[in-house]
TrEMBL record, chain A:
Keywords: 4Fe-4S, Electron transport, Iron, Iron-sulfur, Membrane, Metal-binding, Repeat, Transmembrane, Transmembrane helix, Transport. Coiled coil: none annotated. The chain crosses the membrane at residues 20-42. Pfam families: Fer4_7 (PF12838). The gene is napG. This is Ferredoxin-type protein NapG. Residues 253-289 are annotated as: Disordered.
TrEMBL record, chain B:
Pfam families: Fer4_5, Fer4_7. InterPro entries: 4Fe4S_Fe-S-bd (IPR017896), 4Fe4S_Fe_S_CS (IPR017900), Electron_Trans/Redox (IPR051684), NapH_MauN (IPR011886). The keyword Amino-acid biosynthesis does not apply. NCBIfam families: napH, PRK09477.1. The chain crosses the membrane at residues 36-56, 91-124, 145-163, 175-196. Gene3D superfamilies: 3.30.70.20. This is Quinol dehydrogenase ferredoxin subunit NapH. Keywords: 4Fe-4S, Electron transport, Iron, Iron-sulfur, Membrane, Metal-binding, Repeat, Transmembrane, Transmembrane helix, Transport. It comes from Aromatoleum toluvorans. The keyword Nucleotidyltransferase does not apply. Residues 222-253, 258-287 form the 4Fe-4S ferredoxin-type domain.
Length: 289, 293
């Protein structure tokens, strides 16, 4: 049409408008493809490795990646060189701050200088009590190599915990191997653990620690909200929700309180005497060699 | 690409006229000032981690000078806003200061006087000139604006600073101060791209950060003027050294405008054209100074 007729009149090429449109389409297409690649890469690589912990006060990972401008001011104000900026190839969003608890844990400064330094709010200035930080949650992940689980008294993770006796307690249990000793099992409590990683750092095992700080998402199961716990409901209501239960006698346990089925040696119903079977007392199959 | 057939002796070095006319120092004045500015800023950032002398903390993305002056890159803030967060007032104030400066001085002043990538691409352009490399495939100069738009869109869609995962500019500066990792590869890629594939390909055609600063400096006060254009002898040295050669013609040759001021937003105010001109055609002035001498 008009443009086709224009062709020989112009400089032998397509009309300027058509050339412009084609160039613009090419440029926009190329830029769009490149952006798509970058966006997909960012999306795909935004999963944080489990052992990389964010500084105290860090927003949830998705919000953090939108707010952090990768300036490193938190790194500069960390007095213990705990924090580092991720380099390309570390598998963490390039330039964002993180720390590995096994290398240098967070020392839980009372003034939280890293949070104060953050200009964007990727580290929430609302965090003023380091005890309320939740960088992760310690998990005693290996029950096979932990010395306390072997019945020994290592206790190091418990001793170094800045929130000792709250974030980590030693729970006494029977040691079935020796059958006469106790095992004192380090037990982490999520209401108090800040995820500082001092336990992981100081675990005495030579390579990997038996106790590790994991992101909350990995460390915790979702709460069973749909479950109504009978004992809590009973306490809240003042009585059992299903009313008094019919109590049927249990033979042999008549003297005990209802529901108590524990039996000590010598107690309980006497079993029928088990006499050994005599030869020939069984059924005769009639088989003869 | 092919090495030009003209023998070396027949091609006088770019700027030879200027050196002959003004002496070496005056023929490199703006270049030296610019390198001092680039290296001085880098040194201020590095004095802390290297010598414990904390003048500036952070990096070009966001920094704190002498514990009081916050500065934040407006391009990063724009990405952050696109990704859906409103930063604290520290970052907003820092951005305000930076924006105010570049509105006056010219947005691309960041590119030529501050950005460390300029050292890399200037080196590539110099080597390309010296080796006489020609050809390659140069993308349209508008690609950067499309990239800028799509990068902001990518930030919005992914809810993260998508461009910062690969941004060679912030990666180079951060790498120098905090450690590189594999970022050398990306910086090396930019160098080789500029050297072998596209003259001034990165800074002049692709970099969305540069495009952002171009837009920021659209109405900048400080501009270069070809005030003495009547003395031009068409030696083409200014076109050879200019990182955005297309900005010169309208002012120097009165193509589409009658005054001699370079108003193109892509002009980086680097002043190299002033250096290499043996006829003193160019000078730094304001956008309102339309006088000719």
């Amino acid at each position: 049409m008009a443009e086709v007729q224009d062709k020989p009149v112009g400089q032998g090429g397509p009309s300027p408008r058509r050339r412009f449109l084609r160039e613009a389409a090419g440029v926009a297409g190329g830029a769009c493809l490149l952006s798509l690649g970058v966006g997909l890469y960012a999306k795909q690589a935004s999963a944080l490795p489990a052992t990389a912990l964010r500084p105290p006060g860090a927003l949830a990972e998705a919000d953090f990646l939108a707010a952090c401008v990768r300036c490193g001011l938190c790194v500069r104000d960390c007095p213990y060189d705990t924090l580092r900026l991720a380099e390309l190839g570390d598998g963490i969003a390039t330039g964002t701050p993180y720390f590995h608890a096994r290398q240098i844990p967070c020392e839980m400064c009372e003034t939280i200088p890293c949070v104060v330094a953050c200009p964007t709010g990727a580290l929430d200035h609302g965090l003023t009590d380091i005890g309320k930080a939740r960088m992760g949650l310690a998990v005693l992940i290996d029950h096979e190599t932990c010395l306390n689980f072997l019945g020994l008294r290592c206790d190091v993770c418990y001793r170094v915990c800045p929130v000792i006796d709250k974030a980590i307690t030693l729970e006494r249990q029977h040691n079935p191997r020796s059958d006469r000793h106790a095992m004192l099992l380090p037990t982490v409590h999520s209401d108090h653990c800040t995820g500082c990683g001092k336990c992981e750092k100081s675990c005495v095992l030579p390579g990997e620690a038996a106790i590790k700080v994991l992101p909350l998402k990995l460390a915790q199961g979702s709460k069973a909200e749909h479950y109504r716990k009978g004992w809590e409901e009973k306490e809240a209501a003042g009585e059992s929700l299903i009313g008094e239960q019919l109590e049927l006698p249990v033979r042999g346990l008549e003297g005990k309180s209802y529901g108590d089925t524990r039996v000590a040696p010598g107690q309980g119903p006497t079993p029928a005497p088990a006499a050994p079977a005599r030869p020939g007392s069984g059924l005769d199959s009639g088989w003869k060699p | 690409m092919s090495v030009a057939a003209v023998p070396k002796a027949a091609r006088p070095r770019v700027g030879a006229d200027a050196i002959a006319a003004k002496g070496w120092l005056r023929a490199h004045r703006w270049l030296i000032l610019r390198r001092l500015s680039q290296l001085g800023i880098l040194a201020a950032f590095l004095a802390g981690p290297w010598f414990g002398l904390w003048i500036v903390k952070g990096n070009l993305s966001s920094s704190l000078t002498l514990g009081v002056l916050p500065l934040t890159d407006p391009f990063l803030l724009a990405q952050s806003l696109a990704a859906g967060t409103l930063p604290y007032k520290e970052a907003l104030i820092g951005t305000g200061i930076v924006v105010a400066f570049y509105l006056v001085a010219g947005g691309r002043v960041f590119c030529s006087w501050v950005c460390p990538m300029n050292l890399v691409t200037d080196a590539a352009a110099w080597l390309r000139r010296r080796l006489g490399l020609k050809g390659g495939k140069i993308p349209s100069g508008d690609t950067r604006y499309w990239l800028l738009g799509f990068m902001l869109l990518a930030a919005f869609a992914s809810g993260s600073l998508a461009w910062e995962w690969v941004n060679p500019v912030s990666m180079l500066h951060r790498g120098l101060i905090f450690g590189f990792g594999l970022a050398w590869g990306i910086v090396g890629g930019v160098f080789l791209y500029d050297l072998l594939i596209a003259t001034r390909g990165w800074c002049g055609h692709l970099c969305p950060m540069g495009a952002f600063y171009s837009l920021l400096g659209s109405a900048a006060l400080v501009r270069v003027s070809a005030a003495h254009r009547s003395a031009c002898d068409d030696c083409m040295d200014c076109f050879a050294v200019c990182p955005e050669p297309q900005v010169i013609r309208p002012a120097l040759k009165a193509a589409g405008q009658d005054h001699p001021v370079i108003l193109d937003r892509n002009c980086t105010n680097c002043g190299r054209c002033i250096d290499v001109c043996g006829r003193n055609v160019f000078r730094i002035t304001t956008r309102f100074d339309r006088s000719e001498s």
